[in-house]
Amino acid sequence: MMQPVSASKLEIPFDAIVLAAGKGTRFKGETPKVLHPILGISALGRVLKTLSEAGCRRAIVVIGHQSEKIESEINHLQPRWTHMNIQTVLQSPQRGTGDAVRQVRDQIPDLRPTVLVLAGDVPLLRSETLLSLVHHHTTQDAHLTLLGATVENPTGYGRLILNPSEPSGQLQAIIEESDAGESQKKIQYVNTGVYALHWPVCTPMLSTLSAATGQGEYYLTDLVGIALTHGHRVACQWLTDATEMIGINTRAHIAEAVHALSHRQIQALMQAGVTILSTAQTLIAPEVRIGADTVIYPGCVLEGEVTVGSGCELGPNTQLIGPVRIEDNVRISHSVVSDSVIAKGAYIGPYAHIRGGSAVGMDTRVGNFVELKNVQMGNASAAAHLSYLGDAHIGDRVNMGAGSITANYDPVRDVKHLTHIEDGAKVGCNSVLIAPVAVGRNSCVAAGSVITKTVEAGDLAISRGKQTVLPQWVIKHESPTALFRADCQP
Ligand code: UD1
Ligand code: CA
User: Catalytic annotation on 65?
Assistant: First the structure.
């Protein structure tokens, strides 16, 4: 069984190979399998993140099918982990996992003696697990160490054939699902697809892999049998939490992986003092931090770099897409917040959308059907109903009336302009502020106005047609048979 090993305790340097060249036939779709998001980060991104957390300095990703898309994901991810160098190796055509590792051997000459091999479609592995595997591999002085697991339903995984005559059940071979007989298919010991290799010993053996198997592919799993035949030491480390090995080979596995990852995070958050009312109807990514005494109502999806303070109430039905920072005692219901900061005591929703680098001040109200895009809003202000506010600086104690809008976009020049609304201003209902424009301190914009020029501090701006009243006009013009006559009493 695994002993937990932390990154600080382990000082065995290792490189990693991540296999991501396969087509993902069982997925039936355009997007490469390893690029499917698992709570906000692609499966490949999660594998690389785990490697970086385990202290890996160099990862070689084998790419092939839709390699440009995978390379662009790597270019997007690389800046997050500056201590880890990520390189790619092309495998074309894709002739199996064994062939994939062989491409690395042939194209990268200088890997460290300890090499971890893992698949880009197994996103739930913990960094402690990888460290523990390297630790076991080293202490056992093994040439190949496999990470094995015992699972309820082994369908789809390679089965581990253990020697029953030995007490510890020495690993003898791995049989793939498609090559397994009926009795072998019942075996619940499976291959997680993660291996620690003694690179100088294993690389010559890669040449002896044969494609004689049912699928006509070179299986990396055959290396176990070959190593044993050569008298090399093969070890096996057992996974404690089998959910870590979920490989996303089908769409059903995506749902399974997302729920397992979220479940792990929800359990940790509940232990840290967060109330989560429906664990089944909440999805929370591992990157999310939440303070004690915050209550999460059903239907919340929190992913990316999200920090939530203490004493908040989130949901029902709220999506936070990081980077997002929510300070203490904030209430958000039925809303979407992305790339924004919400300060203490603010009340958001129901049905608000806050995005594009917005910041909502303390005790500020952003309410029903209000959208904020790149808006810096001060303290104790309000936009409570039916507004679009884009590219605006809004001060403290400002009231944006129902339906008020900052018209930020000049469609002729295709540019966006800023609106400045100073402290204490009151912008009446259904007024449109045509940017660039400024509304001064403690000024007032009358309801229904279209504002194109600066409103100075303390002024009232009215820009709308004057009301005209035609006395008794209706009585004079109404048909005697009209359904709702003006002289009829309700
Ligand atoms: C593999 C293992 C199986 C194990 C399972 C764990 C083999 C032969 N089988 O099966 O024992 O239980 O993982 O998840 O290794 N890939 C390449 N190049 C190729 C083929 C695949 O880079 O030519 C990559 C894929 O993109 C994928 C990974 O290797 O990320 C694993 O391939 P996949 O086809 O998913 O193997 P499994 O059938 O899951
Ligand atoms: Ca797989």
Answer: no
Mean pLDDT in consecutive groups of 10 residues from the start of the chain, 490 residues: 56 94 84 94 97 96 96 95 94 95 96 97 97 96 96 93 74 91 94 97 95 79 95 94 93 96 98 98 98 98 98 98 98 98 98 98 98 98 98 98 97 96 98 98 98 98 95 91 73
In order, the DSSP letters of 62-85 are EEBTBHHHHHHHHHHHGGG-TTSE
- Residues 422, 395: contact at Cβ < 8 Å? yes
Q: Ligand 1, residue 122: give the atom nearest the CA.
A: 14
User: Of 232, 259, 263, 385, which is the active-site residue?
Assistant: 385
DSSP character string of 361-388: -TT-EEEEEEEEEEEEE-TT-EEEEEEE
Of 301, 319, 264, the closest CA to residue 286 belongs to: 264
* Atom of ligand 1 minimally distant from the CA of 192: 6
Q: What is the pTM of this model?
A: 0.92
* Probe residue for ligand 1, chosen from 97, 220, 253 as the CB with the greatest number of ligand atoms within 8 Å: 97
Q: Given ligand 1 and candidates 19, 150, 194, which is best to mutate, with the most ligand atoms within 8 Å of its CB?
A: 19
Say how far residue 348 (Cα) sits from the centre of its chain: 23
- The three-state secondary structure class of 89 is strand
Count CB neighbours of 490 within 10 A.
3
Atom of ligand 1 nearest to the CA of 245: 14
